[in-house]
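Query structure, 133 tokens:
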């Protein structure tokens, strides 16, 4: 079954937002000791996500939209993000606090693709939330 383009964009946004929380794998989640550091690491991971999306061809993006499975590179980002999402809860970082911190850092993100720009603008608009806890 084919996913509509808006569903693909929504899927990418969910993956990216779920991924908030790690800095590309170089820091142990336990070493992040503040909500500010967590936001910095989240922006770095979001940039990793954007870089992956930017490197994909239109055909690869379409294939991802038709697949029920998350591509391995994005699955890795998602799992890394989950670890720091858990850390956000341990640190007591609230949704409101993280949203404000992420919004303050969104200008650090860049993308050359329509999909990437959509993700950046969605973050800028505060859509979807950043952390569950």
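Result returned for the query:
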């Amino acid at each position: 079954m084919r996913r509509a383009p808006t569903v693909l964009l929504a899927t990418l946004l969910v993956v990216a937002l779920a991924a908030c929380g790690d800095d590309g794998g170089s820091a142990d989640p336990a070493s992040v000791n503040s909500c500010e550091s967590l936001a910095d690491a989240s922006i770095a991971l979001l940039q990793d996500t954007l870089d992956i999306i930017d490197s994909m061809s239109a055909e690869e993006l379409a294939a991802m939209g038709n697949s029920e499975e998350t591509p391995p590179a994005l699955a890795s980002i998602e799992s890394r993000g989950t670890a720091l999402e858990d850390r956000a809860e341990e640190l007591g970082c609230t949704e409101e606090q993280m949203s404000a911190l992420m919004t303050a850092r969104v200008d650090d993100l860049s993308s050359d693709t329509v999909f990437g720009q959509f993700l950046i603008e969605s973050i800028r608009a505060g859509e979807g939330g950043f952390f569950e806890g």
